[in-house]
From TrEMBL:
<dbReference type="GO" id="GO:0006308">
    <property type="term" value="P:DNA catabolic process"/>
</dbReference>
<dbReference type="InterPro" id="IPR008947">
    <property type="entry name" value="PLipase_C/P1_nuclease_dom_sf"/>
</dbReference>
<dbReference type="GO" id="GO:0000014">
    <property type="term" value="F:single-stranded DNA endodeoxyribonuclease activity"/>
</dbReference>
<dbReference type="InterPro" id="IPR003154">
    <property type="entry name" value="S1/P1nuclease"/>
</dbReference>
<keyword id="KW-0540">Nuclease</keyword>
<feature type="signal peptide">
    <location>
        <begin position="1"/>
        <end position="24"/>
    </location>
</feature>
<comment type="similarity">
    <text>Belongs to the nuclease type I family.</text>
</comment>
<dbReference type="GO" id="GO:0003676">
    <property type="term" value="F:nucleic acid binding"/>
</dbReference>
<keyword id="KW-1015">Disulfide bond</keyword>
<protein>
    <recommendedName>
        <fullName>Aspergillus nuclease S1</fullName>
        <ecNumber>3.1.30.1</ecNumber>
    </recommendedName>
</protein>
<keyword id="KW-0325">Glycoprotein</keyword>
<dbReference type="GO" id="GO:0004521">
    <property type="term" value="F:RNA endonuclease activity"/>
</dbReference>
<keyword id="KW-0732">Signal</keyword>
<keyword id="KW-0479">Metal-binding</keyword>
<dbReference type="Pfam" id="PF02265">
    <property type="entry name" value="S1-P1_nuclease"/>
</dbReference>
<dbReference type="GO" id="GO:0046872">
    <property type="term" value="F:metal ion binding"/>
</dbReference>
<keyword id="KW-0378">Hydrolase</keyword>
Amino acid sequence: MIQSSFLFFGTAFVLLQLLPGVIGWGKEGHYAVCKIAEGLLTEDAAAAVKMLLPEIAKGELAAVCSWADEIRVHYSWSGELHFVNTPEFRCNYEYCRDCHNSSGDKDRCVIGGINNYTMQLQNYQCSASERKYNLTEALMFLSHFIGDAHQPLHAGFRGDLGGNTISVHWFGLQTNLHRVWDNMIIETAMKSFYNSDLAIMIESINKNITDTWSEDIISWENCTSINTVCPDPYASESIDLACKYAYKGATPGSTLSDEYFLSRLPIVEKRLAQTGGSEMIRSRFFFLGTTFLLLQLLPGILGWGKEGHYAICKIAEGLLTEDAAAAVKMLLPEIAQGEFAAVCSWADEVRFHYRWSGPLHYVDTPDFRCNYEYCRDCHDSGGHKDRCVTGGIYNYTMQLQTYEGSLSDWKYNLTEALMFLSHFIGDVHQPLHVGFLGDLGGNTIPIRWFRRKTNLHHIWDNMIIETAVSFFYNSDFALMIEAIRRNITDVWSADISSWENCAPANTVCPDPYASESIKLACKYAYKGATPGSTLSGFYFLSRLPIVEKRLAQAGVRLASTLNRIFKPQVLISEAYVTLTFL
Ligand SMILES: *[C@@H]1O[C@H](CO)[C@@H](O)[C@H](O)[C@H]1NC(C)=O
Ligand SMILES: *[C@@H]1O[C@H](CO)[C@@H](O)[C@H](O)[C@H]1NC(C)=O
Ligand SMILES: *[C@@H]1O[C@H](CO)[C@@H](O)[C@H](O)[C@H]1NC(C)=O
Ligand SMILES: *[C@@H]1O[C@H](CO)[C@@H](O)[C@H](O)[C@H]1NC(C)=O
Ligand SMILES: *[C@@H]1O[C@H](CO)[C@@H](O)[C@H](O)[C@H]1NC(C)=O
Ligand SMILES: *[C@@H]1O[C@H](CO)[C@@H](O)[C@H](O)[C@H]1NC(C)=O
Ligand SMILES: *[C@@H]1O[C@H](CO)[C@@H](O)[C@H](O)[C@H]1NC(C)=O
Ligand SMILES: *[C@@H]1O[C@H](CO)[C@@H](O)[C@H](O)[C@H]1NC(C)=O
């Protein structure tokens, strides 16, 4: 493509200087895509994007979504990253076959670029001095290339350079087919239907996203948990659409007008919508990465949410036997200042530093099965067995059982084991920590919580608890914990022995907890929470009792596990009368 693309890009660049709005999807297309994406970012992603934007963007992602076109001549190596060429008339795309530049260097195409800049952005958690890449550029490239990958002719045939060499008339204007798809369809639509106002066009695409296409978004975002980004299907869709719509009826020298315009415009609008949707933060990387950063700034953001973990450990603390309480006290690090609950979010705080521990916070289950099986589900995305939340619970319980003996004999760091175990017993009780693989436990389901943009996972980690604290507990979290404890000694007292139930030979029984979680996830968390929906009063009020009970169960079970570890055979239900809360 390079021989003549030079000329093409050269002239396009000159035009761009004169007439902003000429390359890529066209400045309008990229602006629309990023504007749509901006409205769909989670709070965490929006904060990260804001941090990374250059000053000239003045806080607006869409303002720099054509940057990659503007520097294309200057960064001449980047030209080949805007498109991928596919073989003539095959109408399909394959990464290995197609993603290379004209001298055959692998990965040098739009899909390789998307993978590259996604990988770079995964370094977002590193401190600025540790970052190997310029993440401002990575963000601007990534947002642009995801747009390009959706323009059907950016995955067009090699022989005509994605329609660049097919000259056509667009109504009365001489142009080429590539440019019709980059610009003309959008520009004509703006003039014909949107009063020449791009904002109105974006608004009506957004309306379709929340309305006509709301059911489809889950499939647009589809990406397995292993991958942060899934650009290959975008290219496959593009070349398929190029064959079906772009090339069809557009022979060299033909005139394209009303019929072509009106039948292709819906395709263009949908591609713009899909791009914006696909930039939504689907990735654990960005999500957790940015959350981690926020955690540093604003304590209280991960896991069940710092509040949830605090409540669970606070409840457990009050139910420990003397022996267990003494052991816990021995093992607590100094920073805890003797308070167990103070370190129950430690496992979230070290999650970035101890990268290997990330998969131990959750377990993914198959989509829509609504059940959990250790052997089938407990592994990380690389298939390594036992690397999930229940595996972590077994692991750290086993370690804590070596507590006997003198300190110097310990094979494991039992301080860490205690902090991990108490956190993971909390996590396994959060229904969406045992959610579906396809949506990463609700992380990729965008939702409005009352008026705030967030995602379903975050609602269950934090928002339900936070909303309850501010609605019902006078913004005092201690009052909420007190109310849960009152229910434990009162409404739920008869249930406690079943909550504690664990086969006599076992010290810990996390598998039933995971099974309960995914059942609750299906019945309550996912129910009524389709992507893009707004959840408020009814969802909140009907789900809050579930959350409160899960916090109670987690607290009771954490205590009875620790009680069994540090002195076998003591059940809270048996010793119950003698126990008082702190
Ligand atoms: C293809 O990519 C390689 C590696 O970046 C580069 O050295 C080479 O010049 C590129 N080929 C062309 C024709 O630009
Ligand atoms: C990856 O990004 C770096 C930094 O911008 C760039 O030099 C390199 O050419 C990119 N490679 C691909 C395949 O996108
Ligand atoms: C990162 O890239 C942007 C845009 O090219 C540039 O303005 C900025 O100075 C770069 N930052 C660093 C640290 O090099
Ligand atoms: C909205 O969706 C309808 C039905 O699919 C379609 O005909 C229309 O072109 C879409 N409009 C926009 C602006 O996306
Ligand atoms: C997601 O993609 C997988 C594999 O590509 C496919 O089997 C599955 O049906 C897709 N799910 C949705 C909701 O589109
Ligand atoms: C078990 O604990 C050790 C020490 O923290 C850790 O290195 C290992 O990854 C853990 N394995 C699992 C499955 O939790
Ligand atoms: C155990 O882990 C804690 C927390 O990471 C650390 O502060 C302590 O130094 C470790 N102890 C040993 C003996 O390594
Ligand atoms: C206490 O139990 C009642 C009855 O099950 C329930 O409605 C309420 O939400 C619970 N409150 C708390 C704080 O757990």
